[in-house]
């Protein structure tokens, strides 16, 4: 019965989405077909807002003033079709509309609501007010001030978390790029079983991240983990390593951030390897042939041919990898079991998660999220502009 219930829920969801798309396409088609007819404009201003209000009431989403907002929206849409579209580009608009509405519901609305929360005060003491009245106390920029002046957790400040996050991001991206570049250079040569090697190296990145992280977490277990077993075997074979301080350790409790870093480096190298390998294979062999004729060494070819030509591929990948790593809560959450536990491995996004869902500081967390978003946005813009400027100089 549970299986049938799940199938029914999935089928109902599919039908709901299909019905929504059909309604949207019919709505657009009517505007494309009849936008010039005066009677259509009058009827559209009456009928479509009423139908929209009925739909909102059906799903329990209607609020005071909903009809006015729907009527104003319909006026703007009618003006858009009359003076901007003018019956042109019917097929492109109708093909793009479902994706645009889906993105607006999944991305734009949550972001706007996040901004709204960041300027108000939603917490356990005000959540019932919001539920009963739909309003929240206005807080101005006080939530943003608290982000920089108060601790999101109990043992570490925002600035310490920022420093730790920068170290975490730099170390991970550095080893991702370095390891991926070395492996890509090796796989770019004419070697036997290259396809098999490439497939095996991509497995950590290709498999579901939850499975990969939990599998690697077990390898750092204090007694039965592969890492400590290897260290013990090395000490049996090379006893002098003990005098250098080499010994099995409690990885998950004593070095949680280092453990997370090692696991994340293992997960991220395959992605960089694939990206860089694609860039290496796009470089014409004529450059290397000319360099061989001139007597260039391997390092000279690497410096003057490979690195400059791989840069247009590498820079966007580094930017993407930086944003991913900066926001990577998955590895830290799965390795350390973040439910309010150890704060030794927390970075900004894991502290943000705890502030919202462990300490129930919702508006503070919304402001925190906007700050993190702004940091990453400006970093990406600056990094890409710097890259474009370097290309123009060349």
- Poorly predicted runs are none
Q: Order of helices and strands, N to C?
A: HHHHHHHHHHHHHHHHH
User: What is the average per-residue confidence, as pLDDT, rounded to a whole number?
Assistant: 85
The first-to-last residue Cα distance is 67 Å
- In the CATH hierarchy, the architecture of the domain at 169-318 is Orthogonal Bundle
Q: Mind summarizing the main beta sheet?
A: none
CATH topology of the domain at 169-318: MetI-like fold
Shape: globular
Task: Please specify the SSE layout and strand pairing.
Layout lengths: L1 H33 L3 H21 L7 H20 L4 H29 L8 H7 L8 H8 L8 H30 L6 H13 L2 H11 L6 H12 L13 H4 L1 H26 L3 H9 L4 H29 L2 H8 L11 H10 L4 H32 L1
Helix pairs in contact: 1-4, 2-3, 4-17, 6-17, 7-12, 7-14, 8-12, 9-12, 9-15, 12-14, 12-15, 14-17, 16-17
Descriptors for this entry?
394 residues, mainly alpha, MetI-like fold, 17 helices
Brief characterization of the structure:
Helices cover 77% and strands 0% of the residues. It is mainly α.
Report on the structure:
With 394 residues, the chain is an all-alpha fold. Helix content is 77%, strand content 0%. It contains 17 helices and no strands. The radius of gyration is 28 Å and the shape is globular.
């Amino acid at each position: 019965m549970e299986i049938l219930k799940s199938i029914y829920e999935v089928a109902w969801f599919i039908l709901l989405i299909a019905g929504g798309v059909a309604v949207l396409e019919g709505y657009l088609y009517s505007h494309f077909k009849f936008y010039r007819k005066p009677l259509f404009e009058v009827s559209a201003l009456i009928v479509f807002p009423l139908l929209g209000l009925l739909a909102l009431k059906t799903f329990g989403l209607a609020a005071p003033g909903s009809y006015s907002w729907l009527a104003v929206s319909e006026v703007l849409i009618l003006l858009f079709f009359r003076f901007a579209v003018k019956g042109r580009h019917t097929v492109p608009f109708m093909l793009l509309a479902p994706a645009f509405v889906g993105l607006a519901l999944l991305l734009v609305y949550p972001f706007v609501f996040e901004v709204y929360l960041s300027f108000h005060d939603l917490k356990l003491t005000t959540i019932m007010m919001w539920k009963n009245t739909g309003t929240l106390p206005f807080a101005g920029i006080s939530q943003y001030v608290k982000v920089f002046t108060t601790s999101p957790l109990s043992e570490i400040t925002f600035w310490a978390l920022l420093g730790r996050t920068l170290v975490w991001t730099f170390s991970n991206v550095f080893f991702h790029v370095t390891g991926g570049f070395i492996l890509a250079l090796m796989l770019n040569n004419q070697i036997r079983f290259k396809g098999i090697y490439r497939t095996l190296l991509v497995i950590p990145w290709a498999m579901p991240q939850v499975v990969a992280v939990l599998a690697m977490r077990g390898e750092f277990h204090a007694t039965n983990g592969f890492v400590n077993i290897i260290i013990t075997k090395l000490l049996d074979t090379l006893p002098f390593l003990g005098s250098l301080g080499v010994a099995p350790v409690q990885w998950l409790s004593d070095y949680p951030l280092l453990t997370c870093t090692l696991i994340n480096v293992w997960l991220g190298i395959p992605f960089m390897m694939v990206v860089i390998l694609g860039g290496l294979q796009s470089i014409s062999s004529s450059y290397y042939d000319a360099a061989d004729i001139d007597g260039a060494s391997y390092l000279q070819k690497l410096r003057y041919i490979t690195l400059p030509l791989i840069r247009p591929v590498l820079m966007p990948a580094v930017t993407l990898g930086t944003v991913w790593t900066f926001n990577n809560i998955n590895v830290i959450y799965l390795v350390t079991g973040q439910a309010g536990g150890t704060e030794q491995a927390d970075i900004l996004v894991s502290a943000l998660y705890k502030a919202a869902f462990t300490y129930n500081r919702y508006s503070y967390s919304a402001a925190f999220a906007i700050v993190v978003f702004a940091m990453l946005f400006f970093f990406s813009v600056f990094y890409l502009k710097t890259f474009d400027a370097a290309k123009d100089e060349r």
